[in-house]
Structure formats: C-alpha cells, structure tokens
Specification:
Largest sheet: 5 strands, antiparallel
Helix content: 25-40%
Distance between the termini: 78 Å
Shape: elongated
Order of helices and strands: HEEEEEEEEE
Strand content: 25-35%
Structural class: alpha+beta
Number of strands: 9
Number of helices: 1
Radius of gyration: 25 Å
Amino acid sequence: MNVPGHRSRGFTLIELMVVVGLVVLLISLVGPSVRRMIDVQRVNSTNAQLVTDLQFARAEAAARNANVRLTFRSDATRSCYTLYTYTSNAAGRCDCLASPACTAAGSVEIRTVTIPRDTRVAVLPDSTLPIEFAFEPITGALYKIPTDYSSPPLRQYVINTGIDTERMLRTTVGLAGRVTVCAPAGSKMSAAPCP
C-alpha cells in the first residue's frame, strides 16, 4: 500500500540495465590489460625458475664432481628441459618429452621442468645452438657435449623465455658458467636491454 508523501525505494529496470552496461564496459576495457599482466608474470616466473635451475646445475656439477648436462626440447604441447649427470660411457641423452626422461645407462636425472603450451610461455635455446650443454665440475664453466661432427666450441649458451617478441627474456650462460638475463630488442619486459 502506498502512503501519500512516502516515496518507494528501489531500482528501476532501466537503472539496473545502465549499471550492468557500465560493468560490462569496464570489464571489456580492463580484461586485456589484466591478461597482459598475467602473461608478463608467467614469463618472469618461468625465467626465474630457469635461472635458478641453471645455478643449481652448476652447483651440482661441483657437488657431484661430474658434468651436469641440460637438454632442451619442445613439441606441440610443451617445452621442457632436463638436468642430469652422466658417465663417460652413457649411451645417449635424456629427453624431457619422454617418460621417464632418462633411460640411458649411466645417466641420472636430477630435475625435469615442463612448461605446458597453454601457458603460452616457451623456453627454448637459440636456434643456432645445439639442444644441450653441460657445466663441468672443476670450474663450473660451460662445456660443449662432444658429438660425432666437428663444430666450433661454445662461447656462450643463449636461452629465450617468452610468449612473443614483446614478452621475451634472454638468459645467457657465459663461458665461465655465469648466468645473465636481459631483454632483447623489441621486448617490453623490465630487464636490462641486451647488448
């Protein structure tokens, strides 16, 4: 019952539609920037894990008094890498795409890291480099895995972590085994620009 002089309190259908329209508009404006922020954080965290694993592999080479290899692989569903030790008579390399990653006699898996493609982040070595390298135990230096073919020695090993050219970090393992991170040309990541 309406009391004269007393106004009913509530929202009309038009007022509710205006509010819903404004909420939809805000979500459509904010959504893409939130997605970009999530992508940047994924690249940063994946690269931080890579740097930690590289430093760990170098330390493990000294602790185990053995070369520690890192092998990088990728397929349509993931990119991955495996840290492992091997004896001089090991029959082959470990493959992080396989399960288990290390099946060759004389190889011992330390850690395998898999990055699913649905995260949109990939961790891959520079395309001009072999898919693996090692840290040697005495100095922790970069060590190229001997192969059946002759090729120049490694001066550095470059690994790219990213989604696209704007969201890319480059991790470099120098000849002495030290790890540095930079943002390649065109990248908008917050890291020092690559030389």
